[in-house]
Design goal:
The complex is a heterodimer of chains A (604) and B (319). Helices cover 57% and strands 4% of the residues of chain A. Chain A is mainly alpha-helical and 604 residues long. Chain A has one domain. In chain A, the strands form three sheets. In chain A, strands 1-2 form a two-stranded antiparallel ribbon. Chain A has a two-stranded antiparallel ribbon with strand order 3-4. The two termini of chain A are 34 Å apart. In chain B, a hairpin with a 5-residue loop joins strand 1 (43-45) and strand 2 (51-54). Chain B is globular and about 85 Å long. In chain B, helix 5 (131-138) crosses helix 9 (183-195) and helix 7 packs across helix 9. Chain B is mainly alpha-helical and 319 residues long. The N and C termini of chain B lie far apart (73 Å). Chain B contains 15 helices and seven strands. Chain B folds into three domains: 2-40, no CATH class; 42-83 and 237-319, no CATH class; 90-236, no CATH class. In chain B, the strands form three sheets. Chain B has a two-stranded antiparallel sheet. In chain B, strands 3-4 form a two-stranded antiparallel sheet. The chains are: A mainly alpha (604), B mainly alpha (319). Chains A and B meet through helix 1, helix 2, helix 3, helix 6 and helix 7 of A and helix 1, strand 2, helix 3, strand 4 and strand 5 of B.
Chain lengths: 604, 319
């Protein structure tokens, strides 16, 4: 039960530390390059940039990437590599998919094997999964340069190139080959139909001929490797890494789960290395690790050590609810006893889980994929036990426990500034970070980056929950239905991309006669949330770092609040808990907690 | 600005050339050379060279001679996969498990519970038709499940409806304008009519419809029955609906049914057949990370092929 998560976390850390040193060397341009690579870099380099120029270059590139992606997706029926003749996608599906893959969210309101051709999979999905994590890494590199007081913040294009080619590409190649060895397909051939062993078990057509089982496949290994590495999470198949072709065995699961965390962990090491302050990075790493371990332990405990509470016996109960029509304004609602079913649930909740990964693999992955902004799944989060479902939600709410490649640490730096500020207030000194004074302008930028996230989760959740947009799109009743809405916007805002997938949000092909009733609303709302919550929390910290870079360095005295010891780690931990809990506790109580306490099953 | 245009063009061409062309092309090459069979989807072929499935993808089995895979929320459709996405508080989850239980649950002695459920239901209905109304109240989907479980029920209900136009007319008066009664609606009318004694005939079936649809009623009346709990993987659907494995425990739970069916079909000694098949289960057992991460499992398709071949004595088709 606990062996697998401990083995996984240990291996991640062991691999991430050397990788972090390598990434730091690469992003600082200290790696020795052969002549032709230097030649390419010179073609791309537009010279040193300040934070504004850096941000503008980043936005220009994103516009280019959006336009190219748009052209490919809208022309899907006319492009090659389409053996199964996938048709025209609906406008909102295209919009949502592009926003999603542009923002490194990879929330999928489509189903890969159903809606996308191999060309779209490779030239949109695979391509974007390479360069969007590179954007996060580039932004973190720039911010780090600002914090350490460089004269300029580097060059966005060069950073993007280095992160893509020298960091992501080589690891992706190795990972993809290992995954193929585990049994993952890599082919451009189309679906194949098999005659089942028990003929007719798939049903028969009208003439009485046994129907075959049609099995979708494709260039899966290429997409899955980079999906896992770049905190992308956009799967080849609809159910992501639960699919045997996307996660064929116990070892592929180990490889994939480790690669979820690999770069997010490594960039913390990179940060310390680039700053020349590894102790500070160690404190940050430690705080993140404590949160990660807590979420992981929580999810495994509530999911793998306990059966699904929907199948066990519940005694007769009585609820008292508010009812203005009743005498006294309150009314008793009796709930009859529910019989337990003769099901052996010793191995925990099996609904939505695969057996081949091992008993606790589902919740272990759930915590990993949501602490980072990966968003791939190897079990259906919608079917996690109620309290276990809280762990992925909380991971996305904080969104800074290792987080997305680059952006996760940027998010934590925001919390860190708040922690420095609070600590400064407590001792009555102007807060300082890395020997630079943090003043009103910096705090405003930090708060902007911090508050856009809860605003973009709770605002749309409230709106959709109040209207048919949300209420008519649900797959589950009562508080779990509310959790589905809450999860979707948490995932969009955290640029995560996982989902309580029961939510009806798919339009799909343009000629779909029966799309999900409010698919258009979901597509547009989530698309906007993803884009806003991608760029505001990158640009505001860029401005913040640019502004700190200009400041005079203060001298280190005995009165300076040190940021490289355990005390500061505790302050940082407390700040994240406090701010996170204050923002999201009410929503958590309405969703997973209410489901856990409430009637199970909810209604008949 | 020119510099930006140049940089963006270079990056665009290079990242696409690398990420969307060179990288997948290289992997296609590696796959073809090193992992040819896996890269194509791990296809399993029988002795005649026909593809019978993918080792990694579950396929459905109806015949009692085969081990059942885990239930699938997408009916084993490997071109549009998915899970149920039902939360613990969703009544549908409990209902699906109830229906499944009637078909797989067995007594501790090894005898299946199903036939008892069916005969108990028939007996109760004969003795006191009113009980049907009570059951229907406890399990509102009862009529819908029952009529969907067997085409004989569907035909019976359609015929019954044509003989009872009054009941249908009454239903139509209470329904929305222009609504047509579905088979489930008609089955509900038939149930009401049977419960109050107006209809007295009940369709003949092999009993599986009663086992699944009426299991909750039986279970509520037999909570103290000496049953062996069903391993949860046999009644809980996987995330993609295609999990190729079941637990060894889940396979052994089905052992009596499978070996009895083969013994009957091949006219062989039940005990020997049982022994042979049990040995095959143990031979096919494998556990995640060598047992460190999980319990022993078997691949259902591979096991069924092995069992068929062993019972056949040859590798020719089972039918």
């Amino acid at each position: 039960m606990w062996t697998l998560p401990i083995f996984l976390v240990g291996t991640m850390i062991a691999l991430a530390i050397p990788l972090g040193f390598y990434v730091a060397r690469t992003m600082d341009g200290r790696a020795h390059l052969p002549g032709w690579l230097s030649w390419i870099e010179q073609r791309i380099d537009t010279g040193p940039q300040n934070w504004k120029q850096y941000a503008v270059a980043m936005l220009i590139w994103n516009v280019v990437a959006f336009v190219v992606g748009f052209a490919i997706l809208t022309l899907q029926p006319y492009l090659p590599l389409n053996p199964d003749h996938k048709g025209m996608l609906s406008p909102t599906t295209v919009f949502n998919t592009l926003c999603s893959f542009l923002s490194n969210t990879n929330l999928q309101h489509y189903s890969g094997e159903v809606h996308l051709s191999y060309f779209s999979q490779l030239f949109v999905i695979c391509w974007k999964q390479f360069h969007t994590p590179a954007i996060g890494l580039a932004a973190l590199g720039a911010i780090t340069r600002g914090l350490r007081g460089d004269a300029h913040m580097g060059n966005f294009y060069v950073d993007l190139w280095r992160a893509t080619t020298y960091v992501l590409l080589p690891i992706a190649v190795v990972l993809a080959i290992l995954l193929m060895a585990c049994g993952m397909p890599m082919t451009l051939d189309g679906n194949f139909a098999v005659t089942t062993l028990d003929p007719g078990a798939m049903g028969s057509d009208e003439a009485g001929t046994a129907l075959p089982q049609t099995i979708a496949r494709g260039p899966v290994a290429a997409i899955v490797a980079i999906k896992q590495l770049g905190t992308n999470g956009g799967g080849f198949f609809g159910p992501n890494s639960t699919h045997p072709f996307e996660n064929p065995s116990d070892w592929s699961n180990v490889l994939e789960n480790i690669s979820i965390m690999l770069l997010p962990m490594a960039v913390v090491v990179m940060f310390g290395r680039m700053l020349g302050n590894l102790r500070h990075a160690a404190v940050i790493f430690g705080v993140m690790l404590v949160f990660y371990a807590a979420f992981l332990g929580w999810a495994v405990y509530f999911d793998s050590t306990q059966g699904n509470p929907g199948l066990v016996a519940h005694a007769e109960r009585e609820f008292t609810i508010d009812d203005p029509a009743a005498a006294g304004g309150r009314r008793d609602v009796p709930l009859p006893a529910v019989a337990g079913l003769p099901v052996d649930q010793a191995l925990g909740n099996h609904e939505g889980k695969e057996l081949r990964f091992g008993t606790s693999a589902g919740p272990t992955w759930a915590a990993s994929t949501t602490c980072t902004s990966n968003g791939s799944v190897n079990a259906m989060h919608d079917s996690l036990n109620p309290l276990a479902g809280l762990a992925p939600l909380a991971g996305m709410w904080l969104n800074c426990i290792f987080g997305g490649v680059g952006v996760g640490l940027i998010n934590l730096l925001i919390y860190l500034i708040v922690a420095v500020f609070l600590a400064g207030l407590m001792v009555g000194r102007t807060p300082e970070y890395l020997c630079k004074k943090v003043e009103a302008r910096e705090m405003k930028l930090a708060m902007l980056a911090l508050l856009v996230h809860p605003l973009m989760i709770l605002g749309p959740t409230g709106l959709f929950a109040a209207l048919d947009w949300g209420a008519k799109s649900l797959n589950n009743p009562g508080p779990h239905g509310f959790s589905e809405i809450l999860y979707e916007f948490s995932s969009a805002s955290a640029n995560n991309g996982s989902g309580f997938e029961g939510l009806a949000d798919t339009y799909g092909f343009n000629d779909n006669a029966a799309p999900a009733p409010y698919a258009v609303h979901w597509d547009i709302a989530c698309g906007l949330v993803m884009v806003v919550c991608r760029f505001v929390p990158i640009i505001a910290p860029l401005a913040f770092a640019g502004s700190l870079a200009m400041k005079k360095r203060t001298t280190l005295t005995a009165g300076t609040l040190r940021t490289d010891n355990v005390t500061f780690g505790c302050v940082l931990f407390g700040t994240v808990v406090l701010v996170g809990a204050l923002l999201f506790l009410p929503a958590a109580v309405l969703g997973p907690v209410a489901e856990h306490l409430g009637p199970l099953p909810f209604g008949r | 600005m020119n510099a930006h245009v140049r940089a963006n063009l270079w990056l665009l061409v290079l990242t696409i050339a690398i990420g969307a062309v060179a990288y997948p092309a290289m992997l296609l090459g590696v796959g073809r050379v090193l992992f040819a069979e896996k890269a194509e989807g791990s296809l399993l072929k029988d002795a005649q060279g026909n593809v019978v499935g993918s080792r990694l993808i579950a396929q459905p089995f109806r015949d009692a001679r085969y081990f059942q895979p885990r239930p699938s929320a997408v009916s084993y459709n490997a071109a549009a996969t998915g899970g149920s996405n039902w939360g613990a508080n969703n009544p549908n989850l409990r209902k699906r498990v109830l229906k499944q239980l009637g078909l797989v649950l067995k007594y501790r002695s090894g005898e299946p519970v199903g036939p008892d459920v069916a005969s108990w239901v028939r007996e109760q209905l004969r003795a006191n038709p009113k009980v049907l109304a009570q059951w229907h109240e406890v399990t509102p989907d009862l009529s819908a499940w029952w009529v969907a479980a067997d085409s004989a029920n569907d035909e019976f209900v359609t015929k019954w409806a044509s003989e009872h136009p009054d009941d249908v007319a009454k239903w139509r008066a209470g329904a929305e304008e222009g609504a047509e009664a579905t088979a489930a609606d008609l089955a509900g009318l038939f149930f009401a009519s049977y419960a109050n004694g107006q209809s007295t005939t009940w369709p003949e079936t092999n009993g599986e419809d009663l086992q699944s649809a009426f299991f909750e009623a039986w279970w509520n009346a037999h909570a103290d029955a000496d049953v062996e709990k069903v391993p949860s993987d046999l009644v809980m659907a996987s995330g993609c609906g295609l999990d190729p494995d079941i637990t060894v425990k889940g396979a052994k739970y089905q052992l009596e049914r499978v070996s009895a069916a083969w013994a009957e079909a091949r006219q062989r000694d039940p005990a020997t057949v049982r022994q042979t098949i049990e040995k095959l289960i143990d031979e096919h057992a494998h556990a995640p990370l060598g047992g460190v991460a999980g319990v022993p499992l078997v691949n259902v398709l591979e096991l069924n092929i092995a069992v068929r071949d062993a019972m056949q004595g040859t590798t020719a088709g089972a039918n």
